[in-house]
Design a protein that fits this description.
Strand content: 15-25%
InterPro entries: LRR_dom_sf (IPR032675)
Number of helices: 19
Helix content: 25-40%
Distance between the termini: 67 Å
Protein name: F-box domain-containing protein
Shape: flat
């Protein structure tokens, strides 16, 4: 053995061009046989030691798992952790990729806990096309609702494809199957109606609403706190039971079609003075400003309002006393454009001391420059304003300056750009360059952290860099540093010159500024198949 591990007599010949003699070759071969035998013995010993090591390691892992903290957690604590895994911004879906179904696939112990935790099953998104495609999914909906026991539940019922609901041509046998499945699914949903806390009907047809109405079985008041609906007025009429819920505080109606809406909305049997959040959106005729005032007079507890006004509003005179809305924090007049004169009259009729978010589309101030100061009074009477939208077309250079000065607590500003042109022959609307120039002075809106520019026609690189450098600031700066810049260009108006290079964007990112620059020619994501259609995208 000692000879085996002794240095070879040919050590000084290794890695040279030396050619051994026949006798030396025989001697080397004999030496290699002995050494190969010893190597095999060492390898066998290593394998034996490795097996022993693996056995000891498995023993250690198994016993560590036996005394691990998760194993010793009480079942109610594990259940609370499971509940925290549910989506926060939407209802849960029937997918094994997400909680709660995912939690049932880890181990038998977790599955037992998940199935015995009712709060884990209190939200569900039901896309009818997806659920009706398989009998097993319909049974899963029924089981899901049963697992929630006596807890209040949140449902979103989506029917994105109207054609598949009632118009698609099918074989008679398939129609019978689908009809039976619909009836069974509706029965499962309406059986839990007394426990509905939040419900969202998305794009449901008249026929579906009718079947929901005739299938309902309830002998006590609804526990409904939030009711959301998108579809036609005829279908909404069949769901009037939801309006009478005594605890209803959130109503969101997104109506389609050209039906007159003012009279219907004003006659809804709602407890208006209990509403905290109200959405009245329409892709047809909107609501008159007189209706808006009437609703605000009824909803004295409102925290947020989103409403579609009439776009062709005439000059209005409000005969009621000025309105006090002490709790209103968010006020949005959606999509339609109102004249600056009408907006000024409307805002002048309301007191909103807690208002933080205000958005309204404004057209050119065709009655004179004096009406372009409609946001100035809002800034003075609502000192907590954090977010607003300005339309450069509705302002003058002076009213833009006064408007920005009136919002010292503004955190987010969205500016809608337009080409500079005169609306009264002498006064021009302010340009985007003028806005950037004003905001380069950090004493203007010192709390500003987000700036969005939409419908951008042109922007100069030097002007943008000057604004960025001024707004990023340092730790010694008195103003809040910019955190986000978003610029959306008009279609076909993408700048020829690269505004920010990749290196410049990376430099700003390293300083904590998120930048998005893109054109407006984007239709959004396609609706994905599976259990998700009808849900908003996750914040992540």
């Amino acid at each position: 053995m000692a000879r085996m591990f002794s240095e070879s007599q040919f050590s000084d010949r290794l890695n040279t061009n030396y050619v051994p003699s026949d006798g030396e070759i025989g001697h080397i071969r004999m030496d290699l046989v002995l050494r190969s035998e010893e190597l095999a013995r060492i390898d066998a010993h290593i394998c034996e030691l490795s097996a022993q090591r693996d056995k000891i390691q498995a023993y250690i892992h198994a016993h560590k798992a036996l005394i691990s903290l998760p194993r010793r957690l009480p079942q109610d604590i594990v259940g609370e952790i499971f509940v925290a895994c549910l989506p926060m911004s939407r209802n849960a879906v029937m997918s094994a990729q997400e909680a709660p179904l995912l939690l049932c696939r880890i181990c038998s112990a977790w599955r037992t806990i998940a199935l015995s935790t009712p709060r884990l099953w209190t939200s569900l998104h039901v896309p009818f096309g997806f659920v009706l495609a398989k009998e097993s999914r319909m049974l899963a909906v029924a089981q899901w609702l049963q697992r929630s026991a006596a807890c209040l539940i949140s449902l979103s019922i989506s029917h994105v494809n109207q054609r598949s609901w009632e118009d698609q041509e099918e074989e008679p046998e398939m129609k019978d199957v689908q009809s039976a499945r619909r009836e069974s699914l509706l029965k499962s949903l309406t059986a839990s109606m007394a426990r509905w806390r939040d419900v969202d009907f998305q794009n449901i047809s008249f026929k579906m609403a009718y079947e929901l109405q005739i299938a309902k079985v309830i002998d006590r008041p609804l526990s409904l706190e939030s009711f959301k609906f998108s579809g036609r007025l005829s279908a909404l009429n069949l769901l009037d039971l939801c309006f009478a819920a005594p605890n209803l505080h959130t109503v969101a109606l997104r109506l389609k079609g050209t039906d007159p809406l003012d009279e219907f909305v004003l006659s809804m049997p709602l407890s208006w003075n209990r509403l905290e959040n109200l959405v009245l959106d329409s892709n047809g005729s909107g609501f008159s400003l007189l209706t808006v005032i009437s609703l605000l007079g009824r909803c004295t507890q409102l925290v947020s309002l989103y409403i579609t006004p009439e776009s062709n509003d005439a000059e209005i005179d409000f005969v009621s006393a000025p309105l006090s809305l002490p709790f209103l924090q968010s006020f949005t007049l959606s999509r339609r454009f109102l004249t600056s004169c009408s907006l000024g009259r409307l805002l002048g009729h309301m007191s909103m001391p807690q208002l933080r978010h205000f958005h309204a589309g404004a057209t050119t101030c065709e009655h004179g420059a004096q009406h372009s100061f409609f946001l100035v009074r809002l800034g003075k009477t609502s000192p907590l304003m954090e977010e607003t939208t300005i339309y450069l077309l509705s302002l003058t250079t002076q009213s833009l300056l006064d408007t920005l000065r009136s919002f010292p607590s503004l955190i987010k500003l969205v500016a809608v750009d337009t080409d500079v042109w005169g609306w009264d022959g002498t006064v021009l609307t302010p340009s985007l360059a003028h806005l950037f120039s004003l905001l380069t002075d950090t004493n203007m809106c010192p709390m500003l952290q987000e700036l969005g520019v939409r419908n951008c026609a042109r922007v100069e690189k030097a002007m943008l860099h000057a604004f960025m450098q001024a707004r990023i600031g340092t730790t010694e700066s008195a103003h809040r540093p910019l955190r986000r810049l978003e610029i959306t260009f008009q279609e076909s108006c993408t700048p020829d010159v690269e505004l920010l290079s990749a290196a410049e964007i990376q430099s700003y990112l390293s300083q904590g500024v998120e930048i998005s620059i893109f054109d407006d020619n984007w239709d959004g994501p396609l609706v994905s198949p599976g259990p998700w259609p009808g849900l908003p995208p996750d914040d992540s």
